[in-house]
Amino acid sequence: MKSKLLLLRKTTPRWIVFMVDIIICFFSLHVAYLVRFNFSIPKHEWVLYVNYVFPIVISVRAVTFILFKSYAGMVRYTGMEDSIRLLKIISIGSLLFVVINLLTFQWKGIFIVPFSIIIIEFLLTTFLLVFVRLFIKMYYFETIHSKSIRTNVVIVGKDNLAISVKRSLDNDISVNYRVIAFIDVQSQGKGLRLEGIKIYPLNQLELLVEKYNVQSVIIADENLTKTQKREISEMAINLNLKVYEVPSLKTWINGSLNIQQLKQINIEDLLEREVIQLDTKKISSQIKEKVVLVTGAAGSIGREIVIQLTRFEPQYIVLYDQAESPMYDLVLELEEKYNFSRFKYILGDITNEQRIEYMIQRYKPHVIFHAAAYKHVPVMENNPAEAVLTNIKGTKILADLAHKYQVERFVMISTDKAVNPTNVMGASKRIAEMYCQALGTVSATKFITTRFGNVLGSAGSVIPRFKQQIEHGGPVTVTHPDITRYFMTIPEACQLVLEAGAMGNNNEIFIFDMGKPVRIIDLAKKMIRLAGLQEGKDIEIKITGLRPGEKIYEELLNNSENTLPTYHPLIMIAKVAQVKYDAILAQINQLFDAVNTYDNYQIVRIMKNIVPEFKSKNSIFEKLDK
User: Fold this and answer.
1) What pLDDT does residue 7 have?
2) Is the pTM of the predicted complex or chain greater than 0.70?
3) Number of domains the chain contains
4) 417 is an active site residue
């Protein structure tokens, strides 16, 4: 019991470690003599051993241990570096024996320590010193981990990264993981082992889960594509496993992995696609040493556009938004995280024409990225006047001033909800698109529109809402069992915005390849499983019914539209019917007059006249379609 307590105390006194090492050296020396003389030491050798060899060997070992502090390390954390250090210290002692032998041969004509003894003692001492330390380490961790139930994990990978993760798990007492297998994605499995742990092919993951009660998977293979990571993660999630990913080597502390750095796979990782290849030269030619204005700069999309722009060395970026706190957060992020100071930030409403004109006059932007907009479908359905003022009038004010002051490029951020709109928000964005296209026919400014679907993690996105509902114990609310949406990460969407903005000639509407649509109910189920919970048992999914203006399927193209390819595989040009500037201007002015009446039905009726394909769904405005 005392020995167990001694091993489990925080640090064993150094003098005890030193004494144990000396005892091991004495034992190794004695065994070396027994082996050398076939367990029958001659009398004259015994005399030399007792009077000379023993004092010399033990004294040299003791001095080298003291000089190089072999006893200073924490025994229970002995690793490869500690073992190599011990080998060096023992080697130095053995070399000293050789030197002593050579000196005594010249002085007395004898080798006082037989060379065979030196070799045997060196091998035995090295083996026993390392073995004892590793045994204590193993005993310590087994004793500590036996106090609680071990969590079985498998590691995806078989290279140095996977080995490092395994060793970190073995050495970290703050976690209670046992690695029971490595997974090789490429191999079909040949029964190979890595550090004593068997390597299995990926198709045997389910068998491992059943046989060993595996609870977690750690992805530690840098050669995997995002598609492979997603497939592995989804396979693991379907088996009710938690999935973790090893962070970049750059983030390791002093070259070592801290287990707390393991990142649990989230739903954004499952929806993320391969890294987009951008034409950086083309983008840089449009941005470098130019003034860029970003409206809605503190919002999800605007903020990411600003971050992406910092890579291309603009003269400076003008940030415009009405949200005070998010703007302040963006300013701090630019200064502290990105070390970027070439920006101006201005608080203001997108409908404040005098404020915007002053800003454009003063800073003379060459490029405008217009991301400011109201985007919440149910909110705009109940407030059509505000949708018109911000999304249409705000865009018109900005576009007119861009035309007046001959801004080179005007890039508008639109939405897939502008296609065959079923709600006020989508219709307002479609009208804004139409006006920008029409203005582009009479302006020197190049007007470019980008149209894409939902972005992961943006304000109002379904994902943050689901996370919050799961944290609160549910239920997770889905409006319809068949509802689907396109998803894209914020960085991915904004990279494509920059690319499209650079390639645009004038009046194009660029649409992005959003991948496959995702069923929202499937998204909810995956997020529940990612949280380590079970649908129906731990958290319920509740169908609440479609919200005002919401449709089941989103579209990226109008039925009458077609597309043309561009040099970028993820960007296409939508061929849409052009409208004349004078006609759309008259209709929009009529719409603005209706806003002043605060008659929602009249406002929406005019919007439907401007956009004939606007058919309301699940809305009080459906009666206008009859």
Assistant:
1) 45
2) no
3) 3
4) yes
